[in-house]
Amino acid sequence: MKQFINLADFTPDAVEVLVKRAQELREHGPTDAAKGMLLGLLFMNPSLRTRTSMVGAWAYLGGQSVSLSQTEGTYELATGDGPMLGSAAEHIEEAAGVLGRLCDVLGVRAFASGTVWAEDRKDSVIQTFARLSRAPFVNLESGMYHPCQALADRLTLEDKQINKRSSFVLSWAYHPKALPQAVANSALLMATQRGMNVTVLRPEGYTLDADVMAKAHEFSKVTGGSLKETDDVGVLRTTDVVYVKSWCSLPFYSDREGERKLREKYKHWCVGNESLPVGERTKFMHCLPIRRDVKATKALITGKNSLILDQAENRKWAQVAVLDSLLKSM
What we know:
By secondary structure, the chain is α/β, with parallel strands linked by helices. It has 2 domains: 157 residues, Rossmann fold (3-Layer(aba) Sandwich), CATH 3.40.50.1370; 146 residues, Aspartate/ornithine carbamoyltransferase (Rossmann fold). Helices cover 39% and strands 15% of the residues. It is built from 11 helices and 12 strands.
């Protein structure tokens, strides 16, 4: 493995190998596989779990890391063609080339711009870094995918011994802002890739990307699971797992006011409240950060069935496995 950009780039069997490797490395203890090597991290957007867990994962393998933020201490990057007469002082192609030479492994986070979906879904920043970096490359979350989170989620399901044929509801929830689809896309692909019986619960106007849905259906056929979509919140009462996530409306992607008006109609979509009650045994998942009593109730977030802290901790172990695999490809 030389790149880790999208969990769906791997077969179900290959992902299972990664998960088992994460469990093995966690049990084995620290190694010196990355001794004398530098991990470069470039964050073009905020990070708490990803930054900390990547630094921790590389240190677990014996390496050192440098974490850069475009908003603090590094130049603003230009991405287009033409004369650079604006505020950006460095072009992404030079930045990718330099970091790819100075670092032994490189990871980049670059969210969607939230302007034109046809452009954002190309993940141009991530793809440019991956193409031009000499070093093995990790997507730390793009406009379309968050593979490190998805692998940690898969590891959490395995740790908790949740049956592969269990029901899994990916539920939309209200948020004051229109959020990207990356985590939702990756959670959907992870669950169908695992062979679970998946339901996407969302109100009208909040369909996920058509290509992502098509790939998820393909995974379901291969792994023997199932996939359906609904706006019937009753599925929350009987599901084994609910994964809560907010995401934007693609039909209104370039129309912020139109998207806001649509979203405000569903302000009551707070999972666990009177309108969206959850079963007593349902496991609760979320990538964090989460707005309490907005996306889900505090009782659900902090309750005995909440897996959110396990998911967060497993970011480290999932990424240890990814980085270990990248090192083996060098």
